[in-house]
Amino acid sequence: MSKFWSEIVHALTPYVPGEQPKIQNLIKLNTNENPYGPSPRVIAALQAEAGDSLRLYPDPDSSRMKAAIAEYHGLHTNQVFVGNGSDEVLAHIFQALLKQELPLLFPDITYSFYPVYCGLYGIEYETVPLNARFEIAIDDYLRPNGGIIFPNPNAPTGIPLPVAEIERLLQANKDSVVVIDEAYVDFGTESAVALVNRYPNLLVTHTYSKSRSLAGLRIGYAVGDAGLIEALIRVKDSFNSYPIDRFAEAGAIAALQDEAYFQHTRQQVINAREQLVSDLQALGFEVLPSGANFIFARHAGYTGEQLAAGLREQAVIVRHFKKPVRIADFLRITIGNDAQNQALIQALTGLLRA
Ligand SMILES: *Cc1c(COP(=O)(O)O)cnc(C)c1O
C-alpha cells in the first residue's frame, strides 16, 4: 500500500488466477490448459514472423485476423472484435456495454473475473443462484436487468446449457445485452454464434487459450451485431491501439487454417474426459455433466481441501475453491493427456485407500 493510491485502487479485489508453479514434473491440471501443443502450422507461422518486421507496429485493426475469424463463422468482418485474450475482450465489453442503470446479472457460481470487472468499472450487479443441480436456470434471469453474462458451458461447473435455452432467453430479453462466454464451447457444447444475425443484443466471446492450445499467445474475440462491435472498438481505441501483436495475429490465422489438427485434438480431449469421468465414478466420485475440458467432482467421504492437499503431496495440482461453501467440496480438474489422467486416478486411488 502507498499513500499515492487512487480511491479505485484501494477498492479493487483483483482476480486470482490458478497457480503457475515453477516446479518441474508436476501433473498440472489446475488452469484448463490444453494437454496437446498448438498446431505445427502455428509454430511455423510464428517462426516466419520472427524477423525484421518486428520493428514495425502491427496492424491496429488486425484486419487479416478478423477476416479469417469472420470467414470461419460465416459472418462479416464488422461483426468481429479481437483482443489480447478473451479476458481483455470481456473487460472492454463490461466497460462499453454492461455499465447500465439496472444491475448486471450473472450466476452466483461462475467465472470469478466477472465481479472483478464490475469492481474495476463501478458496475452494479446481482448474482442469480444456480439451481439445486448446479445448472443455470433461464427463468431466473427473466426480470429487468442492465445486461446478462454467463459462460456456456459454465465455469467451474462445466455444465452446458442447450442453445435453445439461450434463444429462449434472447426471445424474452430484448432490451439489454446478453453475453455468452464460450471459452470452452469447442469441447462439446452447442454454440450460440449461429444466433448473432438474429439477435442484435447478443455477443459471443471465444478464446484461443483452451481448444486452440494458445494460452501463451493471448488471443480472444467477440462476435455480434456490428453496432455492439463498434462500441468495443471505441473502447479499444481509447485504451491500446495495438493489442494484437504480430505473433498473435500470425498464429491466430494459422490456427484457423489447420482444421484437421483442431478437430483431432479437441476430440482427444473429449474422449479422455469420458474416460476420466467413468474412472472417477468408479472411485465413488460424483461428477457433474461436463461440456468442457475440465470436470467438477466431489467425493462424499472427503472434503475438497483434503483431496486437493493429498493430490498436491503427490505432485498433482487441481483447482479447489474454498468459496462459496456450496462448492467447497468440489475439485475442478483439467482434462490432461492419457498419462496425466492415469497419474491422477492412481494418486486418488492411493488417497482413498489410506
Ligand atoms: C479461460 C477463460 C477465459 C479467458 O481466456 P483468455 O485466456 O483470457 O482468452 C474467459 N472466460 C472463461 C470462462 C474462462 O475460463
UniProtKB/TrEMBL annotation:
Q: Which residues carry this modification: N6-(pyridoxal phosphate)lysine?
A: 210
Q: MF terms per GO, please?
A: histidinol-phosphate transaminase activity
> What Gene3D superfamilies does the entry give?
Aspartate Aminotransferase, domain 1, Type I PLP-dependent aspartate aminotransferase-like (Major domain)
Q: What class of enzyme is it?
A: transferase
User: Per the UniProt record, which EC number(s) apply here?
Assistant: 2.6.1.9
List required co-factors: pyridoxal 5'-phosphate
Pathway the protein contributes to: Amino-acid biosynthesis; L-histidine biosynthesis; L-histidine from 5-phospho-alpha-D-ribose 1-diphosphate: step 7/9
Name the reaction it catalyses. L-histidinol phosphate + 2-oxoglutarate = 3-(imidazol-4-yl)-2-oxopropyl phosphate + L-glutamate
Question: What positions does the domain Aminotransferase class I/classII large occupy?
Answer: 25-348
Identify the keywords attached in UniProt to this record, alphabetized. Amino-acid biosynthesis, Aminotransferase, Histidine biosynthesis, Pyridoxal phosphate, Transferase
Q: Which family does it belong to?
A: Belongs to the class-II pyridoxal-phosphate-dependent aminotransferase family. Histidinol-phosphate aminotransferase subfamily.
Q: How does it assemble?
A: Homodimer.
Matching PANTHER family? HISTIDINOL-PHOSPHATE AMINOTRANSFERASE, HISTIDINOL-PHOSPHATE AMINOTRANSFERASE-RELATED
UniProt protein name: Histidinol-phosphate aminotransferase
| Primary gene name | hisC
